[in-house]
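Researcher: Let's try something more involved. This one mixes different molecule types, so please make sure each is placed in the same coordinate frame as the others.
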Amino acid sequence: MNILPFKVLAISALALALNGCSDELSESSEPVKDVKYSAVVCVGSWPNTAYYIADVPSLKEGQISLKGSGAEMTGKVYAQDVIQKDGFYYHANFGSGRFGKYHVQNGALIVDKEVPFTFLNWSSYVWADDQTLVIFGTAEGEARYAIVKVADMTLTTGKLNLEAYPKGFDEYAIGFAEFRDSKLFIGFSFTTSTYSANMPVYQKFGVAVVNYPGMNTESIISDTRTTTPGGPVVYAPASFQDENGDIYFISDPVYNYDYKSPSSIYRIKKGATQLDNTYYFDFSSKVENGMGPAMWYLGNGKAIVRTRVKGINIDAEHSFSVIDIRNGAFIKKLDLPADKGERMVKAVIVEDGKAYIAVNAADKDYIWEYDPATEALKPGAEFVGGMDYILRLEKVK
Amino acid sequence: MILCTLPLLVNAQTSSISGKITSQDRSTLPGVSVLLKKTSHGTTTDADGLYKLTDVKPGNYTIEVTGVGFSTISQTVSVRSGKQITLDFTMQESQTDLNEVQVVGKTQTQEIKELAFSVNAIETKQFANTTADLNQVLNRSTGVRIREQGGLGSNFVFSINGLSGKAVKYFIDGVPMEILGSAMSLNNIPVNLAERIEVYKGVVPVQLGSDAMGGAVNVITSQKQTNYLDLSHSYGSFNTHRSALTGQYVHKPTGITLKATGFFNYSDNNYKMKGVEILEGGKRNGDQITDLSGANFVVTDTRRFHDQYRSSMGQLEAGITNKSWADVLYLGFGYTAGKQDLQTGFEQTIVYGNVRRDSKAFTGTLRYKKTNLFIKGLDLNLFASQSRDAYVTTDTLLRQYYWDGSWTTKGATEMGGIKTIWHIIRPRTFARANLSYTLNERHSFNINYTADRLKNESYNELISDSDDMPGIMNKQIIGLAYQQELIDKKWVNTFFAKYYGLGLERKKYIDQSYQVIDSTFRNYGYGIASRYKILPDLGIKISLEHAYRLQEVEEVFGDGLNVQPNPDLKPESSDNVNLGGYYGVRFNKHRFFVEASGFYRNATDFIYPVPDQRSKALKNENKASVRVTGFEGELRYDYGDLLFFNINATYQNAVNTTRFGNTSSNNYEATYLNKIPNQPWLFGNANLAIGKNNVFGEDTRLQFSWYTQYVHWFYLTWEAFGNVNGKSTIPNQLIHNASLSYSLQNGRYNISAECRNLTDDLAYDNFRLQKPGRAFSLKLRYFIK
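Model: All components are placed in one shared frame. Result:
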């Protein structure tokens, strides 16, 4: 170690001479369209965790690095629950009471518009059409919705009429949401607003059938075999509609401290407003009592489930399972490295009948290509440089 | 020349000679050498020009007083058995040694700087006429960086050589500051309450028995056995009032002493916020925006609101001094109270309009000191206290506020949770015993023991009326030090070891019944501090310590609500090294002092509360490790009492040494060995004071002071990552402050005017959390001794 007092002073004099660093950005209204995909990633240990939106030029090859690239989210949108469509990112920040629309331009995250929004703390969403985002959440003990016209970020808000609270519960946990034929299907279960070491469990969940745009609850479907029909899907999806228009959704009871129920998959057939009584798939029983925090449709009756190992801890290891969704049958666990990543990851993009799966592995972090037709699995683009978390994989174009 | 000789006859066991040495203009002269010729008795005057020669055998002596720039004084003195003699001298400036280069004696702060430890010693006298609080004084010193969130009373992070938070501990006269209550903090203690502040960096003496892993701040109040009164009040921008009182009365014949200390602070903190967002449009009813349709954010400047701060403190100590069985025995009682509006969340967009914190604390203290206990050289210092600190955070409105004070309803409270009136009550028993033994001139020993028992009760008044599972912390720290002074005291070594014993317990509801869960942690720390004087005023020093910051009850067991337990938590630990040197030189009235040091910290297992999205609770985890290397330097120059100038700079490079982050991985995480973001790494200060005595009449002084602070810009997040176009920064801060003060009757009456942030620059320590702009204040001070 050097003791150079005069050097210190010289450096400080130099520093005093230096000046000016601006983070002003020029506003622009269009996302750059030359990048097809993006990924929300996180580096650094707490409290210096930083989020970035990294450009992903290709899912199949190349390297994804944050060295000098990627749009910094910290200081603007310090969150991973950002919804992306057509290159625009949307985020509702309950802490600062605002809902914003953003895009990436020249490596910077640009604020297109932020509007005051204090009505609900979101956990779920669905697109009613390309320009209309319907978000769901809770506040003041109510289940609430907001219909957002994303072109100008105007909002219409209201209360969702769900089943009244059973005794001892004072909060809804809103899970998956699907929109089909002017009807919204919104999964929910009951929880409490305060955390305690022994969280109570109400052994029942519901799916509200709500007409759109009237937003009146027409009926409530319920079932007692599991709870938590999808965790907070603003992080990762728990439902989809197949080519027939049938809705499938998966439950993740452990997310709301239910350590007894299995993770199960249900179907609501096209045109129906009831669960398909002929269909019930106990997913946990096929994966050593693991859970399914997220699910994507692969096409041709197959789906992929991000699968968490059994246990009460949701910050656990994950794998990926392929299932025959129509027949409720387990196909296989994909031979991928164990996923050591975050609990809620939007890890899959399906394109041209193939799944591209981001895996936070112990060794190398690849986007793997899985072809369900040939069952071939091969590594594609690689995340390099030691990223802590890969949180979302997005198709921008 | 001898102007007065006042022998005082006081009962005492040994004979001694003491007194005060002043110059012709009545300023005190520190560092003046006083010796009895042809004996080994000799000393130098302290910062107040006082000296004392003890254990003088009866007889006739010649006392000689020498100081550079002054004529030597010689006088014969006759010492009789058991008598104490007071001899004051006034020295005349000498013209003969104008060109002589000589090194003179030192002030107390300088003596501390010459300790083997890496320490900032700041004499507060120079700031006594300013409105500064201790943070503002400390923020000008090397290696120290204080990041405040706002104006008076706001939360702050105190960093010493790159380590901050709970790694830094605060003391008043060697006693932890927090026992005086949570309203007592470096950001509200007026400068007049302290005589001196010491900042120990990385390596902390055993006397401050604590788990101060990163360093310690020790505020020293006046320990003089004299009568004095220091009373001041200031008023300034943003309706800021600050009063301070400290006084002591000693009844000489009986030794009965009364000591009173108090302060009061108040501010509206309604300074201008620049470029913040407010809402335009929407339907309004008073401050409430009832309908947000059509409401838009617009950027504007607006007055800060809901940021009132009030804190007060009073402490009374009564006791006796100078008895055969006690040098000092004091009983004290203290009270502190605070009321604070909480204004902003962790980012500027989170605005609070009604969140409040109130606190109140009572303290009873006992202080005992005896030198030469039983045998010569054995000194005992005891302190014990019982205190109760209580504070309440109130967050009961379901509202979202905006910067203009308007609000909308929100589905959660302002802080984002359920309605709370959150009580934290902390009864605490603290005891400290310090025993030092000076075997001879070369060898001395010190043993320090602290016992600290803290009960932590916390509950939400809206849910329950007490905490049925409070946490209890028992902390015992033993420190042992051995000091040797070799080669004519040129080489001083201190070897020390510390034992950290920690017992934690909390009741927990398991299997339908309460069970007490407890855990015990034992850790051992050690270190060495060494100084070698090459010349009387040129020294080099090195100090090393393996130090700990112990876990707290809440960190290990949680609080049953907001914080989840983590029984696997380890203490934070750090290996700290300082290597430095100093050099002082004086040519007649020109005095230079330069000091510089390099530092190294290797800290691991930092404990951070990590928020959990699912449970909305926090969990403390050993999250990160950091290695800091850096250097700092300071240059001081003064010319008599006319001019004082200093400049200092600190550079620190903190790199992340967390190999594996959040995920279990075989690869080092991306940020491994990257510079820690969101942390100042280059900063400096310059002070200039020009003063002249007797400008407008005798015994007056006019002084102008200028102070500039510079903090180099830094990135909010990791430097290496992300496109440079979109990276956020905390910009350069270059803040100028000036004050003008005028004193009458030798500093008895003082008036000063001050301007902070003269150029009204946008200042923020934390990302976009703005601090006050230009502010004026006026201070009146009455000081008598």
